[in-house]
Amino acid sequence: MLIEDAKRLEKIDRLYELRLDQYISLPVLAVVGDQSSGKSSVLEGLTGLPLPRDSGLCTRFPTQIVFKRSQARRIEVSIIPSSEPGERKKVRIHDFSRRYSQDGDAFDPRDFVAVLKEAAEIMEVPSAGQSPEDSSHSFSNDILKIEMAGPQHEHFSVIDLPGLFRKPTPGQTTKEDMVLVKQMVASYLNNARAIILAVVPANVDLATQEIIQMAEDADPERTRTLGVLTKPDLVDRGAESAIIDLVKADGNVRGLGYTLVCNRSQSNLGASTTERDQNEIDFFNAGLWSTLPKDRVGIAALKQRLNALLVGVTRNTFADVMLDLENRIDKVQQELDSIGSPRTSPADQRLFLLQISTVFQSLATKAIDGYYGRDLCFERCETLRLATVVMVENERFSQNMFRHGSRRRFSSDEDSTSDDEPVENDGNKPPTDSENAVNETFEEQHKEYPELRTLKPVLAKMQHPKEESVQEWITRAYRNFKGFEIGTTNPSLLPSLIREQTSSWHYHAGSHTYNVIVRIHSFLQSLLHLVCSDTSVCDRIWVRIAPTLKAAYKTAMDHVSFLVNVESSGFPVTLNHYFVDNLKKQRLSRIEKRLGKLKSWHTNDESKEPLIRLADTVQSYVNNEQHSIEDLHDILKSYHKVARKRFVDAVCKQVVDHHLICSPEGPLWALSPQFIARLNEDELHHLAGEDEATLIRRKNLKIELESLLEGQDIIQF
User: Fold this and answer.
1) Of 223, 224, 235, whose CA–CA distance to 260 is shortest?
2) In whole angstroms, what is the distance from residue 581 CA to residue 150 CA?
3) CB neighbours (10 Å) of residue 316?
4) What is the pLDDT of residues 260-282, one digit of tens each?
5) Confidence of residue 129 (pLDDT cuts 50, 70, 90)
6) pLDDT tens for each residue of 419-454
7) N or C: which end of the chain has fewer CB within 10 A?
8) What φ, ψ does residue 415 adopt, rounded to 5°?
9) Order of strands across the sheet with 63-69?
10) Which of 20, 81, 34, 73 lies closest to 231, judged by CA?
11) Rounded to whole angstroms, how far apart are CA atoms 262 and 231?
12) Which residues, at least 6 apart from 303, have a Cβ–Cβ distance to it below 8 Å?
């Protein structure tokens, strides 16, 4: 073996000592099989250790056996815990460590039994003759490590796993134990860098061996699975040919194929290792077995193949192991960073919340200012682009008001259009999908945001368009309001008409405000989870600021009602010169329409307008009632246009921009540094105090990071 290969194998063994196999895939030679497969005999042949028989100990936990070349002969026995042990168990594991000077057969089966029994007690699994009821666990993931050093050894490492069993043994194993052992074995088989040594008896049908199926599931191409056939001396006479064909059939067997070994028989259980090896050689030199290739039979050939496979997989994956270590270190460090520093004191908790609040407010400010290029979060999540989201809602609200802001369509809309706004849709048509968005939004959002349900009753009921024409409606109202006026109109009629014509404004404004609230609510929740990775802290903060948010939303909805009340009550008031301009246009348009219906003729001068008789113009005038009704229509339309624009601006500026965006009491500032500064110690502990799960998680991550960093030092130097 090359020195570089030996060093790599030794480094991998040291990574196993740190139990880094729990975090990354490490090269390993795993011996697996049923309890009666002859697995222990194969392991004894590979290692030369005097494995005890019928002790039942090695089946309770994995056993790693490591060989190292050294001038001094020694055997070291230790336990590698599967997780961070408690203080009591840690002391017992430390005290358990054994070191033997290997001299001849000093480490005999009795010593081995004593070591296994004590290891079982420390791992809290049953020892020989002990019932599982007397122990905490039936099986353990802790690893018993036996390291053997001497000048005669090449570097070699193997892990023996508990044997699979199909039926529970009363007083020894249960159905739950069957599942546990199978899961333990599968965890090693599924390691893509593991060499699977699947041990099966040659005198049974391979199709019935569960370990063969498990190995094929984990390694379909069998590129890392080597089958070991045992007990050839028990094969029925005449059935040898099938076994020989299986071992020889390299071209018909995928992957690494099979190797055949001969274990000790019952008659020579007391034979030495040398005698055992010679008996095996004699067996394969006799009869049909002598036709098998020598590199496919015997424990020596098996060990040579395994050693080459282990060196190869370690050499080929060593760089990947280094990369996996680096990636795992980065991941654990990120998780620790996401948890943050320990928060045990009120000062630590306040600092933690202030850090969240500061980042939260910074991103919220960028979101409403539209500075999306200053943080990547705005590119990854469009819902965080709050300024854009709100402006889209404002524009939709403005369009809805232009199209459906009047209960009845004004009669002159069919023949004239404004130069600065779209033509109003037919008032008799139902609202479009965008007008009904609030109802859909509420139904979609109330499950996610049940706290917004209380805002729904604040919305005004939708006032559907009237089928009655505006002229008929004004005529009816004019006659119903008629008093003792002479040549004039009842002064209370116009406010009543305005109130009726603008009765849908409350619905549209309330719907728009609610939609903006939903967008802001979603923005706040997404932003909070972005700046605070601790979901439990996020949930507690969200519950804590929810009343403040609801109060701010309620204030905004109340202001909508206030603006609607201002527009619908009192006297119609405007100093906007566009009202006079619009009224003038309406009156001139009406006169032009009327005069345009009179008979006229052209002169020979093409530059002159058509002529009409003055007497005809006098006849075109209408009676006093009709004139009043038409004038009311023009005044109502002109005022409605000015008031509608004023109302849209007021809602967008006062309700949305002020109450929901910019106000210090608004929802965007609920998680301000001032809010954090006012929290008392109990509130700090409730919001930022760490629960037991977080404390355990940080502790485990620190332990893992420490082991990973130590492993990185080992593998790099």
Assistant:
1) 235
2) 109
3) 11
4) 999 877 667 677 778 888 988 99
5) low
6) 445 444 444 444 444 445 445 555 565 567 777 877
7) C
8) -110, -10
9) 98-100, 74-80, 143-150, 63-69, 156-160, 28-33, 194-201, 225-230, 258-260
10) 34
11) 6
12) 46, 156
E-strand ranges in 112-155 read 143-150
Which of these, 298, 271, 267, 273, lies nearest to 285 by C-alpha position? Answer: 298
User: In the predicted model, what is the mean pLDDT of residues 617-631?
Assistant: 62
Cβ neighbour number for residue 528 with a 10 Å cutoff: 18
What mean pLDDT, rounded, does the chain reach?
A: 82
Whose CA is closest to 390, among 506, 554, 512? 512
Based on its alpha-carbon atoms, the radius of gyration of the chain, rounded to whole angstroms, reads 44
Residue 708 banded pLDDT, cuts 50, 70, 90? very high
Bridge partner residues of 64 (DSSP): 145, 159
CB atoms within 10 A of CB 350: 19
* Residue range 225-232: mean pLDDT, rounded: 92
State how far the alpha carbon of 141 is from the alpha carbons of 50, 115, 700, in Å: 23, 17, 17
Nearest to 89 by CA among 136, 45, 54, 44: 136
- Could you write out the DSSP letters of every residue in 520-563? HHHHHHHHHHHH---HHHHHHHHHHHHHHHHHHHHHHHHHHHHH
The pLDDT score that the predictor gives to residue 416 is 43
Dist. CA 453–CA 381, nearest whole Å: 26
Give me 395's structure tokens.
């524009």
Kindly state the tokens that stand for 80.
């590698």
> What does the alpha-carbon distance between residue 648 and residue 642 come to, in Å, rounded to a whole number?
10
- What are the structural domain ranges in the chain? 3-331+708-716, 347-410+423-689
CA 231, 275, 103: angle at the middle one, nearest 5?
A: 120
Residues 562, 567, 573, 578: is their CA dihedral positive or negative?
Answer: positive
pTM listed for this prediction:
0.62
Residue 698 CB neighbours (<10 A): 17
Q: Where are the alpha helices (DSSP H) in 249-375?
A: 273-284, 299-339, 346-369
Fold of 3-331+708-716: Rossmann fold (3.40.50)
The torsion angle over the Cα atoms of residues 564, 568, 572 and 573, rounded to 10 degrees, is -20
Exposure string of 400-416, with b = 16+ CB inside 10 Å and e = fewer, is: bbbbbbbbbbbbbbeee
Q: How many residues does the chain have?
A: 717
The two structure tokens encoding residue 617: 């113009």
pLDDT tens figures, 12-56: 999 988 989 989 999 999 999 998 888 888 888 888 877 766 544
Q: How far is the C-alpha of 339 from the C-alpha of 690, rounded, in Å?
A: 10
Task: Please tell me the predicted confidence (pLDDT) of residue 446.
Answer: 59
Which residue reads 């609920």 in tokens? 670
Query: Is residue 661 packed enough to be buried (19+ CB in 10 Å), middle (13-18) or exposed (0-12)?
Result: buried
Rounded to whole angstroms, the Cα distance separating 659 from 667 reads 8
Residues ≥6 apart with Cβ < 8 Å to 183: none
Best mean pLDDT range from 82-86, 601-605, 638-642: 638-642
Q: Quickly tell me which residue has 């003729």 as its tokens.
A: 601
pLDDT tens figures, 326-364: 999 999 999 998 888 888 899 999 999 999 999 999 999
Q: Whole-angstrom Cα distance, residue 28 to residue 148?
A: 17
Q: Which of 603, 596, 600 is CA-nearest to residue 613?
A: 600
User: What DSSP string describes 457-470?
Assistant: GGSPPP-PPPSS-H
Of 110, 168, 111, residue with least CA distance to 139: 168
